[in-house]
Write a structure and sequence with these properties.
The chain is α/β, with parallel strands linked by helices. The protein folds into two domains: 2-53 and 354-382, Urease, subunit C, domain 1; 57-345, TIM Barrel (Alpha-Beta Barrel), CATH 3.20.20.140. It contains ten helices and 21 strands. The protein has helices spanning 75-85, 102-117, 154-161, 178-188, 201-209, 231-238, 255-265, 315-326, 330-333, 335-345, and strands spanning 2-12, 15-25, 28-33, 44-47, 52-55, 57-62, 64-65, 68-69, 90-96, 125-132, 166-171, 191-194, 214-215, 243-247, 270-273, 285-289, 292-297, 300-302, 361-364, 370-375, 378-382. Strand 9, helix 2 and strand 10 (125-132) form a beta-alpha-beta unit. Helix 2 packs parallel to helix 3 and helix 5 (201-209) crosses helix 6 (231-238). It is globular. The protein starts with a strand and ends with a strand. Bound molecules: zinc ion. Zinc ion binds next to loops.
Length: 383
């Protein structure tokens, strides 16, 4: 089966070509045709009439969508999240956990394994799990449930990893045992990431030396930049090889901070995430988050204490915000929506429109809302 998507504006890292075409055979992109090349016969030809064609977005930090949370621990929850994420342009994601009990985490991992084992889904692909906690400093709990906090415990990570792959672990690097924990995560090929932390810059240097290269929702619930102690924000800015997650809903980071971070870190080290909770794609109201209640007003989720509790961001709107704020070329910005995630987490053959890559493709309108989505070369969403 050969499919040809023609008359597209192809945007991929360092590439922006009008009137080009992409050939898909089975799961792969097998050729790109430039505007002056003649096109071969194909079983299916889709004329996208000049619309943008991008690599599918990879959301490495997402808890929920459309009323469901990954930690509901059911196949139904993951299935609904994975289908609805297609509408936001997301073709791969890391199911992200909350700070909950081990029993609930175990149920969630079993559900993920069962879901990923099916091969009939018309949905975004779950490529693994991002464990957000439960290894957090009680002083930096944010909107995580304090009841289930614990010290870094590689045994727990190993038990869960044996059920379904853990790709990334977010934890407070200043906790007792965190250095050994970092070393063991690196040995297991799992990306360690700084999060929810009161760590000093000196703490950061120790985990960086052990191989930590990610920072979770940069600036949010971490030591800020101070002129006598640069903290974790200073560490992330100083170390050029560190990747940072950014929630670009204009609630978690103001527009000026988004602009500043793009100027300092550049598009090679930024990864846009949603950190969306279950209210994403839903109306305002009250929603459960890890056993607590968040009130959502005008799309902003907060606990009764006033603490922001995740986002309700739809992925493509984050790109829209960043494009508007930074004015950077799209062939640069698409690095932050899929390529950096794929290469830093070892998600092979994802994140580019290039021969030999997996055909995870979105066709977008000018506001980046997807009108057509392909996963594994198969059309899985049409608006
Ligand atoms: Zn989160």
């Amino acid at each position: 089966m050969k499919t040809l998507i023609k008359n597209a504006r192809i945007i991929s890292p360092d590439i922006d070509i009008n009137n080009a075409s992409v050939q898909i055979e089975d799961k792969l992109i097998t050729r790109i045709y430039l505007p002056d090349e003649s096109l071969p016969h194909a079983d299916s030809v889709i004329d996208v009439k000049g619309k943008m064609l991008l690599p599918g977005f990879i959301d490495i930090h997402v808890h929920g969508r459309s009323g469901y949370d990954f930690c509901d621990g059911t196949v139904e929850a993951i299935d609904n999240m994975a289908r609805k994420k297609l509408e936001d342009g997301v073709t791969s994601f890391l199911g992200t956990t909350l700070t909950v009990s081990e029993a609930q985490l175990t149920a969630t991992f079993h559900a993920a394994a069962e879901y990923a084992g099916r091969n009939d889904q018309a949905s975004a692909r779950i490529t693994g799990v991002h464990l957000e906690g439960p290894f957090f400093n009680s002083k930096c709990v944010g909107a995580q449930n304090p009841e289930f906090l614990r010290l870094p415990d590689i045994g727990l990570v190993k038990r869960l990893h044996s059920i379904f792959p853990v790709k990334k672990v977010s934890y407070s690097i200043e906790l007792e045992g965190a250095l050994d924990f970092t070393r063991q995560l690196v040995d297991m090929g799992i990306m360690p990431s700084c999060a929810h932390s009161a760590a000093k810059y000196s703490d950061f240097k120790k985990v960086w030396a052990l191989g930590l290269r990610h920072m979770t929702h940069f600036c949010n619930v971490m030591t800020p930049l101070h002129h006598l102690e640069v903290g974790l924000v200073g560490g992330g800015l100083l170390h050029k090889d560190v990747f940072i997650e950014m929630i670009c809903d204009k609630i978690h980071l103001c527009p000026e901070m988004i602009q500043l971070l793009f100027e300092i870190k550049g598009t090679d080290k930024i990864m846009l995430v949603t950190d969306a909770m279950r209210a994403a794609g839903m109306s305002d109201g009250e929603y459960d988050i890890g056993g607590m209640t968040a009130s959502v007003k005008n799309g902003c989720a907060r606990l009764s204490s006033g603490v922001v509790a995740g986002s309700t961001l739809l992925y493509y709107r984050g790109l829209h915000n960043v494009h508007e704020i930074t004015g950077l070329p799209l062939k640069e910005l698409v690095k932050t929506t899929s390529w950096n995630q794929a290469r830093s987490l070892g998600l092979e053959r994802l994140g580019k429109i290039e021969t030999g890559y997996i055909a995870d493709i979105i066709i977008c309108d000018n506001d980046f809302s997807p009108s057509l989505v392909f996963v594994d070369g198969r059309q899985v969403f049409v608006r």
